[in-house]
Amino acid sequence: MAVTSYSPLPEAIPDPVTFKEASAMFAETGHPIHANTLVRQVRARKDIPVVRVGRTDYVSYSDALDVHAEWVRAADD
Length: 77
Prior knowledge:
Helix content is 47%, strand content 16%. It is built from 3 helices and 3 strands; from the N terminus they run βααββα. It has helices at residues 19-27, 35-45, 61-76; strands at residues 16-18, 50-53, 56-60.
């Protein structure tokens, strides 16, 4: 008998990560950003999809990377 497994990751987002995961990866770049700041920046853009699975929000890592780059550039100005 075949068993199908449930994947909690959203299929609508190509490279899903949580905001905490993205924040941890950005900390390694030397330009850390708190997960809550990242959430605010993503929600301010309004064109970036955020998918909630259970109590966890997922965002595309590529989109989060763009938001982080804009945030770093604005902080350097």
